[in-house]
């Protein structure tokens, strides 16, 4: 119990990019109280976990136990990722925006528990942040998300020979690679231009029964929402389904 409390708090601190900022740390207890109050107010009724099959799946539980120390994603988003990883048809998996590798690790476990296939993940890692921002990306700065390491993510995914970690901004970093048809893309890049360019690359490379699972949809990331609105208006064969709490599932109707 005490060990769990300690390791949870240590992880939260390690994942915090402002962990060495004393003013930010002093404010932590206050923010915690505010978040707890917000959770009590907004999550009424609470999530009913009774008999939810994915939560009782031993492979899923084992994956969450490891991935949670390396990801910003919360439990519902990791569950959605797992479920769609099992549902899509043949083809490669792609992740754009891997940061510390937690969601990529979760995808590796999903592949190990399901259909064998390659996973390609792309992120600028410590050299990156964002290539460009627009006024709609006001929540972010160009040098956000530098607190990661290509070598560490490669090491994290090393037990999975089907996982390939690519350093650089997508899609430029994929220019000379043949990734094959894509069955599932986890698109977690937060901002307008990276979302537009990733969708433009994906549009013609999707496999039958494929899906794009996009993070930060309807979460005040106006750049992501705008990119999706423009994309679905330009290509009406794509259908966007919002998922709780803040993802979107983008499907090409002609491929289902
Ligand atoms: C919210 S983080 C990803 C979180 C991660 N999926 C997790 O499990 O915690 C967003 C990441 O996208 C990266 N990114 C932004 N633009 C990108 C692009 N064009 N190609 C690849 N990665 C990009 C950022 O550098 C950052 O590491």
Give the gist of this structure.
41% of the residues lie in helices and 17% in strands.
What does this structure look like?
By secondary structure, this protein is of the alpha/beta class. It has 2 domains: 1-46, no CATH class; 57-255, 3-Layer(aba) Sandwich (Rossmann fold). Helix content is 41%, strand content 17%. The chain has 10 helices and 7 strands. It has helices at 2-15, 22-26, 28-42, 53-56, 58-67, 75-87, 102-113, 150-157, 192-203, 222-234; strands at 92-96, 119-123, 163-167, 182-187, 206-215, 238-243, 247-252. It is globular. It binds S-adenosylmethionine. S-adenosylmethionine binds at residues 71-73, 96-99, 102-103, 122-124, 128-131, 145, 169-170, 188-190, 194.
User: CATH topology of the largest domain, which one?
Assistant: Rossmann fold
Number of domains: 2
* Biggest sheet architecture: 7 strands, mixed
Helix-strand category: alpha/beta
Give the uncertain stretches in residue-range form.
none
Q: Cα distance, first to last residue?
A: 47 Å
Provide the CATH superfamily of the largest domain.
Vaccinia Virus protein VP39
Helix content: 40-55%
Strand order of the largest sheet: 3-2-1-4-5-7-6
The 3D shape can be described as globular
Quick check: average pLDDT?
A: 94
Order of helices and strands: HHHHHHEHEHEEHEHEE
Question: What molecules are bound to this protein?
Answer: S-adenosylmethionine
CATH class division of the largest domain: Alpha Beta
Radius of gyration: 18 Å
- Helix run count: 10
Strand content: 15-25%
**Strand element count:** 7
CATH architecture label of the largest domain: 3-Layer(aba) Sandwich
């Amino acid at each position: 119990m005490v060990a769990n409390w300690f390791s949870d708090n240590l992880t939260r601190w390690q994942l915090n990019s402002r962990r060495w900022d004393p003013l930010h740390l002093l404010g932590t207890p206050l923010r915690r109280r505010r978040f707890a109050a917000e959770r009590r107010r907004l999550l009424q009724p609470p999530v009913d976990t009774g008999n939810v099959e994915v939560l009782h799946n031993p492979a899923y539980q084992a994956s969450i136990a490891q991935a949670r120390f390396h990801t910003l994603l919360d439990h519902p988003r990791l569950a959605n990722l797992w479920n769609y990883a099992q549902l899509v048809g043949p083809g490669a998996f792609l992740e754009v925006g891997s940061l510390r590798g937690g969601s990529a690790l979760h995808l590796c476990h999903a592949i190990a528990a399901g259909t064998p296939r390659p996973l390609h993940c792309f992120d600028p890692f410590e050299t990156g942040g964002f290539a460009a921002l627009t006024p709609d990306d006001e929540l972010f700065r160009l040098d956000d998300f530098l607190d990661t390491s290509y070598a560490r993510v490669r090491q994290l995914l090393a037990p999975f020979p089907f996982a390939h970690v690519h350093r650089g901004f997508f899609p430029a970093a994929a220019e000379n690679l043949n990734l094959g048809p894509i069955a599932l893309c986890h698109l977690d890049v937060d901002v307008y231009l990276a979302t537009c360019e990733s969708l433009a690359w994906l549009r013609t490379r999707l496999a039958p029964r494929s899906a794009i699972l996009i993070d930060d949809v309807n979460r005040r990331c106006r750049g992501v929402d705008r990119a999706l609105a423009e994309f679905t208006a330009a290509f009406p064969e794509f259908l966007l389904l919002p998922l709780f709490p803040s993802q979107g599932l983008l499907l090409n109707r002609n491929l289902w």
